[in-house]
Amino acid sequence: MLSKRIIPCLDVRDGKLTKGIKFKGNVDIGDPVEAAREYYEQGADEIVFYDITASSDKRDIMIDVVRRVAETIFIPFSVGGGIRNLEDMRKVILAGAEKVSVNSAAVNEPEIITQGAKAFGSQCIVLGMDVKKVDVSGKIPSGYEIVIHGGRKYTGIDALWWAKEAEKLGAGEICLNSIDADGTQTGYELTLTALISKNVHIPVIASGGAGKPQHLAEVLTKGRADAALIASMVHYRTYTIAEIKQYLNEHQIKTRILW
Amino acid sequence: MIAIINYNAGNITSVARALQNIGQEFVVTDNTKKLNAASHVIFPGVGAAGEAMAYLREKKLDIWLKTWLSTGKPLMGICLGTQIVLDYSEENDTNCIGLVTGSTKRFPYKLTSGSQTLKIPHMGWNSVTFRHSHPVFQDISPDAEFYFVHSYYPAPSDERAILGTTDYGMTFCSVLAKENLVAMQFHPEKSGRPGLQILRNFCAWRGNA
Fold first, then answer.
1. ipTM > 0.90?
2. Does residue A226 belong to the interface with chain B, where contact is any CB pair within 8 Å?
């Protein structure tokens, strides 16, 4: 049976991790390639990179990072942040990423999903969704609204509608981030995750709120997620990926235990 | 020298990088002279069957693959490269190469496990149950998992061609083997250490030669 995937997320700016990542012996790693290697060796099933580089002239640094990561780890990884068009996608995929993730660009220009799926296959195109809980209204019947620009701008788009629409347009997977839960370490947004996951036919990666293994267990069962994104809980060495997987397997949630 | 068939089908660089990592020399080419000079051939692939077959026919690589198979030298199919060694694929209603009899089918639309409807594509890590041993899969633990991403699966008509199966709401053939051909639905180049081991084993395999 298919295993649930555990996916560490690394934020990169100007080719460096935005926060140091602590590994054995309290070694602080600021190099995304080394961090990827560590997580690969620790049993990550996939890795997500978010490029938060602000200036466009420094974007090619990320392409170099992608190339070096592809030479170092032999599991799938995706790259998001700053992907605006087909040419941006092509660069990242040619450099060695399996998948690209589009977020704001897809909201502004949904055709980018279709174009990407046509050029590289649906399995390459991940729709990143940042979502905030709002009052149920005629415009937002699910009570969850799509926000962009790091949660600062409300779009007036219903999250459930957008997820279904993105699937129709050709997205192969959805990375669903709850802005409300993000950074709290108090658990994923289970209601939102289950709502989206049961209404689309493509895999859903839950994101935002992971603080302990129990949170992953919840989102992978009640939340119906196919994969769980983690950040702080492993970056600060509160848990190792192996410990998380062991917990999940003890709770009858199948994960990959041999790597 | 290992040759990777270049046919504009995606994951070629990933396969190349994995071979680099295991210290194996290789060439990426669609030139049949260079392919003929190889000891082993890897036939990778990501993408759709229709386009892939059109390209292979244009380059006459479909015919070349049949000839290669008859030499007894090792041939490895990966993902789409596995699906199109069969006679036919339901994807884009495509006639394929026919190195193995049978067809490639789409997963049923209503695949379920317990009360949950399963997602298509089958994306992520899953295990393989092997029916018998094979040099390319020696030293691979039965607990090992491999990275899959596909909506279609190979269905050979001859049971004897099935080396391994995988469960995803149904049991499907995930590894094919016939004489000097071994072909897998998952991506060994993206399956961590067990995947690299399979590539290493393949490079050491003599096929029927």
1. yes
2. yes
